[in-house]
Amino acid sequence: MGNITLKNVSKSFGSTSIIPGLDLVIENGEFVVFVGPSGCGKSTLLRLIAGLEDTSGGTINIDGRDVTGEAPAKRKLAMVFQSYALYPHMTVAKNIGFPLKMAGEDKATIDKKVGDAARVLNLTNYLERRPGQLSGGQRQRVAIGRAIVRQPTAFLFDEPLSNLDAALRGTMRLEISELHHQLKTTMIYVTHDQVEAMTMADKIVVLNAGNIEQVGSPMELYKTPKNLFVAGFIGSPKMNLIEGAPAAKYNAKTIGIRPEHMEISTTAGEWKATVGVAEHLGSDTFLHVQADGVGPLTVRADGELAVHHGDTIYLTPDKAKMHRFGPDGKALAS
Amino acid sequence: MARSVTTQHKTIATIAAWIVALLIFFPILYTIITSFKSEQEAIQGFNLIPSGTFESYIEVQAQSGYFKFFLNSVLLSVGSTILALLVAIPAAWSMAFAPTKRTKDILMWMLSTKMMPAVAVLFPIYLIFRNLGLLDSRIGLMIMLMLINLPIVVWMLYTYFREIPGEILEAARMDGASLWNEIIYVLTPMAVPGIASTMLLNIILAWNEAFWTIRLTTTEAAPLTAFISSFSSPQGLFWAKLSAASTLAIAPILIMGWFSQKQLVRGLTFGAVK
Q1: DSSP track, A232-251
Q2: For residue A291, which phi and psi values (nearest 5 degrees)?
Q3: Distance from chain centroid for Cα A303
Q4: pLDDT tier at B267 (50, 70, 90 boundaries)?
Q5: Which residues of B touch A79 (CB under 8 A)?
Q6: Most exposed: A218, A250, B156, B203, by fewest CB within 10 Å?
Q7: Residue in chain A lying closest to B190 (CA)
Q8: What percent of chain A lies above the pLDDT cut of 70?
């Protein structure tokens, strides 16, 4: 089991409040991603759940048991750190076996479980090496191995892929998702990368200044962001947010339209625009345009689209997929 | 563009380094040479080739009993180092891993005490030692040596511990390690080189300390520094004997330093380069 419930959890460092007070329910087996900009309190929240930081208020329950004041070791959680945090003086086998040794398992059991974990993570040939002799991806696998051997109630990942290069990050993302399907254990994953959040999560928790802005499945957040912050944070490239006369036309303070939800024409459309930079990615083309009376916009077009710097194009937003926000920044009912 | 280093440059640099090293080491070398001269040779002027007599050594030992001083030096330097580590390890741990906003100030204040001229507190310390009956006692001097070297020991260990990523200790906590297991299996193996080089340096500093060891001792607790100074005042003109005494005093620490130079250099430069 791995239900985690936070009730009015708060955290302050001195007079600085990092998390003012927050409620959250994480169901057993869910893959939950905490996402938000730097300094939004996502790592602090993870560390509060882990027990590496003390809460300033509120309670944390794991499987119905209040663990608020308990030491990290007693919470039966495993954590994978951004820096891997491997023990540099121990071999890979000793690193993976360390939690089992601490749990008082006998040597034969440790050897067997370490061997099993190494097979799952393709580390069998590296068991006698030290962390210093491994590549970044291998080190991250050792860190994951160390987490899975003790069969924890939940896994906590603190930006585990941010030290890896782009290609390896893609591979490791798949491996972690695959691992979640195999183990079916609750996983909480912290990242500032909304692509990781969208691709891996069952449920995304968007945080801003210690507050939860919205909780939902990736597609819920994409389709129905509750406010401007979520609208601007989820989706890549970012949603275009337009104020002034074009928004007033739709009875809103701000309207939001995603780059992929605009029709492009070279002859006629709602907004006339001049192409600035055209980024040709092959599969897609991202146009950065200046629309008359609207302002700068990003538009996603077909990869084959042949437009260049200085061309005039016409854009028509898909009204069904347009988002409207009131003066308080909250989404208006459509 | 990378800077190219030619063989010629290297040779020049090596020769220059040898000249500087020789200049620094020369006074010690000349002391050793002089110790193997007779008193007459010693006052005759500059001469690098001694007659090779051991008479000064024999007389020095017969006159004053080198081994008692040597034993005191060992006890004081090792004892004060152990005391210093007992205090400094927990202090450095807490400052490195649980710092507060005043930690930096405390560290700077500790270091600032090293800028203070020792003679400024000579009288208060002397009176305290006299009133507590600690004059000429090994335990009193051990405490004194511990106190004067403590800022350096804390600073060195603090710098060293700071290099150990906090996340590794947190990982151990998450892996179910108790505080004790965390210390035994994770902290100590990672900190041993740092503790060892700090220990070595502190032993050398304590061994060489000559201000307090001479002023707070007479006979019982007197270490080798007092042994040398006992030759310099009444018998100052006996250069060969003074050189023999000095050589005897510095030889143990010189040998120890030679064998542990790698650790010492690492300890002194740790944290300076990332």
Answers
A1: HHSSSSPPEEEESHHHHTTT
A2: -95, 135
A3: 27
A4: low
A5: 170-171, 174
A6: A250
A7: A89
A8: 100
Pairing of strands A211-216, A240-243: unpaired
- Tens of pLDDT along B13-59? 999 999 999 999 999 999 999 999 888 888 887 888 888 888 888 88
Chain A residue numbers with beta carbons less than 8 Å from the beta carbon of B167 are: 81-83, 85
- The one-letter code for the residue type at A286 is F
Check: CATH 1.10.3720.10 for B64-269?
yes
Which residues in B have their CB inside 8 Å of a CB on A? 165, 167-168, 170-178, 181, 185-186, 189-190
Domains of chain A, each with CATH number or no CATH: 4-230 (3.40.50.300), 237-325 (2.40.50.140)
Does B235 have pLDDT greater than 60? no
From chain A, the residues in CB contact with B170 under 8 A are 52, 72, 79, 81, 85
A77/B contact by beta carbon, under 8 A:
yes
Which of helix, strand or coil describes residue A35? strand
* Whether this model's pTM surpasses 0.95: no
Residues 6+ apart with CB under 8 A from B64: B227, B230, B231, B245
Q: Which of A92, A100, A99, A98 is nearest to A121 (CA)?
A: A92
Residues of chain A neighbouring B176 (CB-CB closer than 8 A): 73, 99, 102-103, 150
Nearest to A85 among B168, B177, B181 (CB): B168
DSSP symbol at A87: -
Inform me whether the C-beta atom of residue A259 falls under 8 Å from chain B C-beta atoms: no
Domain boundaries, chain B: 64-269
